[in-house]
Amino acid sequence: MTASSTPVAGLVEVLDDLARSADRQASRAAAVNAVRDSATLFTVANELRIMAERLRDAGPAHIDHAHELLDASQRLVADRILRLDRLEREVGALIRVSSGALA
Questions:
Q1: How far is CA 101 from the centre of its chain?
Q2: What single string gives the DSSP state of each residue in 10-41?
Q3: For residue range 9-33, what is the model confidence (pLDDT) as tens digits?
Q4: pLDDT tens for residues 66-83?
Q5: From CA 56, how far away is CA 60, in angstroms rounded?
Q6: Domain ranges (residues) in the chain
């Protein structure tokens, strides 16, 4: 079994992937002036990276806490994705309405 195929290595990879996703969603939030969502998502991304680093350093000692963080973070990121999708649709609709009023 290689290091990259261990359960800890797999969990580290998932944490890192979710951290990147949280960063992307934080940028989306900033683009629509959802400042609190952006800050929350950047914080979650940071927490995920810290946990991934702990797992790299300490291995299975933090695995239970990592799973708890992962579960909570997945729900939060998914919730924010849906919220941002809605906000982007609303902003797009407002722009179309405003553009039509100016024509």
A1: 37
A2: HHHHHHHHHHHHHHHHHHHHHHTT-HHHHHHH
A3: 999 999 999 999 999 999 999 999 9
A4: 999 999 999 999 999 999
A5: 9
A6: 7-102
d(CA 68, CA 2): 25
- Rounded Cα distance between 100 and 98, Å, is 5
What's the CA gap between 95 and 103, in Å, rounded? 12
Q: Note the pTM of the prediction, 2 decimals.
A: 0.83
**Nearest Cα to Cα of residue 74 among 47, 39, 36:** 47
Phi, psi for residue 23 in degrees, rounded to 5: -60, -45
Quote the CA–CA distance of 11 and 47 in Å, as a whole number.
Answer: 14
